[in-house]
Amino acid sequence: MDRAIIAILRGVTPEEVVPIAHEIIKAGITKIEVPLNSPDAVESIRRLAADNAGRALIGAGTVLTVGDVEAVHAAGGKLIVSPNYDPEVIARTADLGMESWPGVFTPTEAFAALKAGATGLKLFPGNMAGPGGMKAMRAVLPKGTQVYAVGGAGPENFDQWVDASADGFGIGSAIYKPGMSVSDVRAKADAIVAAYDKVLP
Predict the structure, then answer these.
(1) Structural domains of the chain, with CATH
(2) For 105-112, what is the mean pLDDT?
(3) Which is the catalytic residue, given 33, 78, 99, 188?
(4) Known active-site residue 99
């Protein structure tokens, strides 16, 4: 089952990223981003991409520049997630055949991102927009637009977001925080998958 969840491993190190990712993938989450403000993030992405070819979609978060996109591509990443709308970042990501998920908060940003070639949209910060904000934006978006809620979305409120038309989620601190053990991450991932499967079977 390809669940519409992106695990966000902010702060992870190259030394720990592979065993942590293994447990996340075993739990049933097969999309993983390493934010570029993590320690030696490109090396973590390189290790993940080499270790999980064909098993998971690996890439980067907090991608702010075209140079970042190219570095992630060179490392084998295929997923680009940004906190913002930047047409040059989106266009380069699309040119390289990678998935582009820019952060948007308004209909203006959403339509501009789609026009630039975004794969889907990241409603961010989700806790500021709330499910009501997503529902209102959905009313004007083109049919079939994929929108993930990121920030403020978790197992405790997946149902509210799905009722508001969320297609998926980016999950950060609810699945991983620096210093967590591999077993702790697995327990968090299992709980997230169980909650997700209740609302998006």
Answers:
(1) 5-199 (3.20.20.70)
(2) 98
(3) 33
(4) no
